[in-house]
Amino acid sequence: xxxxxxxxxxxxxxxxxxxxxxxxxxxxxxxxxxxxxxxxxxxxxxxxxxxxxxxxxxxxxxxxxxxxxxxxxxxxxxxxxxxxxxxxxxxxxxxxxxxxxxxxxxxxxxxxxxxxxxxxxxxxxxxxxxxxxxxxxxxxxxxxxxxxxxxxxxxxxxxxxxxxxxxxxxxxxxxxxxxxxxxxxxxxxxxxxxxxxxxxxxxxxxxxxxxxxxxxxxxxxxxxxxxxxxxxxxxxxxxxxxxxxxxxxxxxxxxxxxxxxxxxxxxxxxxxxxxxxxxxxxxxxxxxxxxxxxxxxxxxxxxxxxxxxxxxxxxxxxxxxxxxxxxxxxxxxxxxxxxxxxxxxxxxxxxxxxxxxxxxxxxxxxxxxxxxxxxxxxxxxxxxxxxxxxxxxxxxxxxxxxxxxxxxxxxxxxxxxxxxxxxxxxxxxxxxxxxxxxxxxxxxxxxxxxxxxxxxxxxxxxxxxxxxxxxxxxxxxxxxxxxxxxxxxxxxxxxxxxxxxxxxxxxxxxxxxxxxxxxxxxxxxxxxxxxxxxxxxxxxxxxxxxxxxxxxxxxxxxxxxxxxxxxxxxxxxxxxxxxxxxxxxxxxxxxxxxxxxxxxxxxxxxxxxxxxxxxxxxxxxxxxxxxxxxxxxxxxxxxxxxxxxxxxxxxxxxxxxxxxxxxxxxxxxxxxxxxxxxxxxxxxxxxxxxxxxxxxxxxxxxxxxxxxxxxxxxxxxxxxxxxxxxxxxxxxxxxxxxxxxxxxxxxxxxxxxxxxxxxxxxxxxxxxxxxxxxxxxxxxxxxxxxxxxxxxxxxxxxxxxxxxxxxxxxxxxxxxxxxxxxxxxxxxxxxxxxxxx
Length: 837
Known about the structure:
There is one protein chain. By secondary structure, this protein is of the alpha+beta class. An eight-stranded mixed beta sheet has the order 5-4-7-2-1-10-13-12. The longest helix has 25 residues, at 216-240. It is globular. The relative contact order is 0.07.
């Protein structure tokens, strides 16, 4: 029998019927030292508002025994235990065992290949706590949780509330944690293993970071940065929300074989892939900061105040994504965080919002399975951009006042979108109902252009626009130094390194409130020699833009000459959007974005622009244009490699696009003892047919990374060799032996251009795998459905077959597959029709 997904109507009925008083959960990890089993006893005290009524508790683990008020219960195979004839006050006790701790949901047992040590982590969003113990697994039934954990003697156990009492047993230790505050089941956590631990005191908080012992040197390397960011984030959010984090202890646990990071209250779980084995690049360091701040923002928005139902999942995630950029820019050294958001996530959101899975930001969610399908680019980067627009629309100070009221009013309870809108409306004095309907209940992206008639400038929307505030910047070439418009670039002055020497200077920035299709733009200079009018300057809203036809080609050239990271980013977003919609060729877009890359001064965006330019050359360009665009990217890499601060990023980029023996030999020479760069070079040499097997084996012996075997497998994946392809597909897609955070890396090396004959059988293997891609839970379903989708060796007929198969798949697989297939369809169109203008 299939495990049933909780519906909204069931959750509403159960939420109206019950009040959960507390959970006491006894967990036994001793069986994990040399086996797969986690044993749990969950005791739930709860009251019923209608004595005599019946309901059910969620438990998708194997139930060994269950009693309600002392009476035995019968479990079923659908993940539920019926609870008949409820009393006014009830005590439920369920003993359960979860033995699928390798590929199952909720709890995972990982073995470190470096030393054979075992680590275990739990992660429950959206409804995976039920796979470990019995609970009422819905977000609005919040309660204190008390965890008692028995684990091998050498292990450390972490959980939400910190400061456990530890008892020595005969061959184990028992960890008894204090009660948590009122938490949703998905916000709880227990992790365990022989961790390396580092602790610091900061502003009255006891901060801890943990990692497997084989990564202890890397955790020590990154400790100062992690503690600094944690202190800065706790101070920023405590101030702007007028509510300091209420618990003294705040832990962050880096674990193997985990996807992303999870905001468990007081004990955030991370993939230890964020502990970079090579020295982190500026973009990698900034990503670490933003993820840390994203999960921290959830302490308030998600944990202290929790969404009532999953239709507000978008708000939960979008707010954290918005807040992490807000905090990074205001409280840390990562002052170009919004520019990197635009260069990365926002470009993905523009593409998703114009594809087959576009949906309103806020939409009805029938059941939790549907909720799992919207952890996507609409929810995260578009949602964050819309909240940035909301802050702009009401004003930052009023936004802060509204958020303060919201947290004070709803702390330790659950709330809805309307509760937030009401608080912000009261604080700002603005009626936000129209704003809410337009931005949150309507799918799609606004598009703007400008009309000029003499000195009269009008902002024109393609269709009826949403109410919003945006800015128009006016630029000309009268200056050579340019102003930074208030945006620095990680220590730079915001200037421009365009090799042509041309620099655009901003003469004016005019904010416009849009309420209709045509909006006059007043206050711009009247000089006829203005070279560029940039719509959405400062990136205040979520909207695509178009240059007018008369200045189209000049706009593509001018993108690299704009004076700040954010202005160049806005222009690049326009170029990218025109490529994805078929209004620009790969050659045009590639040249424009490579020029921006050559001119860029912000370390935050050089790496994403390098990836974007290389992707255009590899995935979007027709075969006849690929070599020229690739060579241009390689030249940009060589130019940046001359700058010591950008050398690492530039050499990594060159390892992706190098094509000649001389380039590869030069890379080897430059790499020296840089093991990471050597691996990247070997992958490229393998793709080009080089015999690198013995060198890969020697490098594997040298590499101290416990996961270095994945790098060796990546080299194998790139080889134009049938046996290598078969081996890698088996380990990657069938056995799922590759850690979830490395699947994309190996898959990208597997699906290479110019290997169609070798890859064609695996395009069918992918189609055959679709019905089972959902196994393992939400994160694996998204990763395997998206990363394994073939970008090569297919045609439009294949796209149609994949999209047809998607409609029979689980919701999270369906949406991921439809989104990825739409992107690849656009790539195929660009490859087939792109010609140089």
